[in-house]
Each structure stands twice: as C-alpha cells, then as structure tokens.
C-alpha cells in the first residue's frame, strides 16, 4: 500500500549518494528531532532507552545558543575481526570520546562527522537541510552539516552517556581507501565557501582550533613525513661519515707508526 510518493523530475542521484538520500528522506520525517544512522551502524535496546534523556538536552543550557546538533559517541564492534580492525577500532574510539569531547568543550569546533548525531529538525530544514550533495566538493558530506549549523548560530554539543554501534573497515585496502577519501574530502573543504566564511567569523583562538582539527592535521602530517625522511637521510650521512673515519683512522695510524 502506497502511503506517500514523491515525483522526481529526473535522475534521483545527481550528486553524492549519501547526502542525496538524506535530502530525499528528510521530507518524510516528522517531529522536532532527526537522528542520522549510516548503513554500517546498529543500535542497542538499552541505549535506545536513553533517547528520552538525550532529547531533553535540546532544552538545556549549553551556552549562548540552544543546541542544534546533539553529538553521540559510537561503539565500534568490529575490533575483534583482525589486528587492523582492532587498530581502527582503537583509533575511532579515541576520536569519538576524548577527541570530540575536547572539540565540543572548550574548543567549540565540533562538527558533524557522519556519526549518529541528533539534529534539530526544524532548525535545519529551514536553513538549507542536513546535507550538501554537490559532487566532488562535498566528498566529506557530513562535516558540511556542521559548517552549515555553526554558520547559522547553531550549537553542536557532545554526549557520551549514549552510544550507537558502528562497523568499521577490517581490511588494509578498505582502510587505505577510506583514509584517502577523508584526506581528499578535506582538501575539497579548503576550496569551499563554508571554510572561508567560518574563517572570517571565528575569533583568533577558535580559528586556530578549527584549523588544527581540519586541514591543519593533514598539513602537520605532511610536514612530519618529510621531516622524518630528511632526518633519516641526515642520520645515515652522519653515521656513514663516522664509520668511514673509524675505518680509515687505524690505517693512517699504522702507516705513521711504520
């Protein structure tokens, strides 16, 4: 039985797949809050019982502005599949707990990272939606929801008393592709107008925090990789010189003694 239908003018997928699906699905939602769940995420019954407490956070005082996105932590349940999956699970666990806790408070630069965050539905559907779906520029489509919310005087919080299960990559090829996608998406963010406008509006300290948590992370990683290479070349040259001197010195001493 067909309850609702939407007539599409053409190809339903013109941009990135996930934000296109979200933009199409949001018109079927009701109520004041929307939780975004990825295909590789799962929920637990005991965690669902806490949802009422989480929704009450919308009416709590979290600073100058009321919350527009309630951040939620994740539990990566694929850590026991392989050693690589375990490393990925530990990395993700540290990011969704300690990392996002600091990003939210005191740095105030936490965005939306594709996690099971709860959106203020009325706030976002009246301010451009919860996703941007343009091809290439919105490869990392999730974080643009955080940009959009912050630019429009939203407040993004983080809460760790509730969690949602998530399956992460378990193979080296999958992990490499994922890290490449994230890095490429970060490069595209630098070209976006959202980053430019945030840079114009943030104060100095918040701007530095925002830089380090976005493109600054990859810039520092690049600098470290180049420094490691040059330091290794330098140490190899120093040790080879020391070795050459130690080999030549006994010969010279023997010649002089003779």
Automatic annotation (TrEMBL):
Listed transmembrane segments: 204-224, 230-249
The keyword Lipid biosynthesis is assigned to this record: no
A cellular component term, taken from the record's GO annotations: 1,3-beta-D-glucan synthase complex
Molecular-function GO term, any one: 1,3-beta-D-glucan synthase activity
Ranges where the record places region Disordered: 1-21
InterPro entries from the UniProt entry: Glyco_trans_48_dom
Name under which the protein is recorded: Glycosyl transferase 48 domain-containing protein
């Amino acid at each position: 039985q067909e309850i609702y239908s939407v007539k599409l003018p053409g190809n339903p997928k013109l941009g990135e797949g996930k934000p296109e699906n979200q933009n199409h699905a949001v018109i079927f939602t009701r109520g004041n809050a929307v939780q975004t769940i990825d295909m590789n995420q799962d929920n637990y019954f005991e965690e669902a019982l806490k949802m009422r407490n989480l929704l009450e956070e919308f009416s709590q005082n979290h600073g100058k502005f009321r919350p527009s996105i309630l951040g939620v932590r994740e539990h990566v349940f694929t850590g026991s599949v392989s050693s690589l999956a375990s490393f990925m699970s530990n990395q993700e666990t540290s990011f969704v707990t300690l990392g996002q806790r600091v990003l939210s408070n005191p740095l105030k630069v936490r965005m939306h990272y594709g996690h099971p965050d709860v959106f203020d539905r009325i706030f976002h559907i009246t301010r451009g939606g919860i996703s941007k779906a343009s091809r290439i520029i919105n490869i990392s489509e999730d974080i643009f929801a955080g940009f959009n919310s912050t630019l429009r005087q939203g407040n993004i919080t983080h809460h760790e008393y509730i969690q949602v299960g998530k399956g992460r990559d378990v193979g080296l090829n999958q992990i490499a592709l994922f890290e490449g996608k994230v890095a490429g998406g970060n490069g595209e963010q630098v070209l976006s107008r959202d980053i430019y406008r945030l840079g114009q509006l943030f104060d100095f300290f918040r701007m530095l925090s925002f830089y380090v948590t976005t493109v600054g992370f990859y810039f520092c990683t690049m600098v470290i990789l180049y420094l490691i290479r040059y330091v290794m070349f330098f140490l190899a040259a120093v040790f080879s010189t020391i070795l050459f001197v130690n080999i030549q010195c006994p010969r010279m001493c023997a010649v002089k003694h003779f």
